[in-house]
Amino acid sequence: MIPTEFEMANGLKEALVKGTNLGVDKLNVAGGFLDDPQVKIPFPKDLVKVENTLRDLGLGSQVEKVTESLNRAAEDAVAEAKPLFVNAIKEMTFQDVKNILMGSDSAATQYLVSKTRSGLESAFQPKIESSLDKVNATKYWTDVIGTYNRIPFVNKVNEDLPAYVTGLAVDGLFLQIAKEEMAIRENPIERTTSLLKKVFGYADSNSAN
């Protein structure tokens, strides 16, 4: 049976709320970022010389403390995403719904990127700054970079740590949301209500034609 426009809109919105909540919840735990190689925030890549120099000086443990604390800050901040996602989902027009249902496997994620990325960065940044202080990342970072900057003849470093973590935290969040979207599109078991089965079954039959 073909779903009505109302059913299509409600079904997709239900799926997106479910997917975004799952995505956020998987990252908003200890190890959510740190233990997942796909989203783990590394020591800044443009500072690889800094990292290597510090490791050569026997300061590898301090480098690891920095990396761990960056990820802990992201895990702490990511909960800020939920209300922004919910608002973006509520504001969807029927044309948005139709485009997403009949679109690519990442169409919903791309919609959320376009509607929420700027807001997420604004919401994450102060939370990240607070989290960096809470997990001692700022102290570890200051200590490590201070040690590096005292090495004779090196170019001094002044990395914007909150901006760096915020950008990668948002990237990691959308990667996780894309995984949840793919699961709902590809795996009927993930369609946990009759409305989801009806709406995504209709989308499947149309994409197969």
Structure description:
The chain is elongated and about 75 Å long. It starts with a helix and ends with a helix. The protein has 9 helices and no strands. The protein has 209 residues and is mainly α.
Secondary structure elements and pairings:
Layout: H1 5-27, H2 48-56, H3 60-77, H4 81-90, H5 94-101, H6 107-134, H7 137-149, H8 161-186, H9 194-208
Helix pairs in contact: 1-4, 1-5, 1-8, 1-9, 3-6, 3-7, 3-8, 4-6, 6-8
Please tally the β strands and state the result. 0
Rg on CA atoms, Å: 21 Å
Q: What are the low-pLDDT stretches, counting only 5+ consecutive residues below 50? A: none
Helicity, as a percent range? over 70%
- Discrete helix count: 9
* SSE topology string: HHHHHHHHH
Distance between the termini: 16 Å
Describe the oligomeric state of these chains in a short phrase.
single chain
- Could you say which structural class the secondary elements and strand pairing correspond to? mainly alpha
Specify the overall morphology: elongated
Task: Summarize model confidence as the mean pLDDT.
Answer: 84
Main sheet characteristics: none
Strand content: under 5%
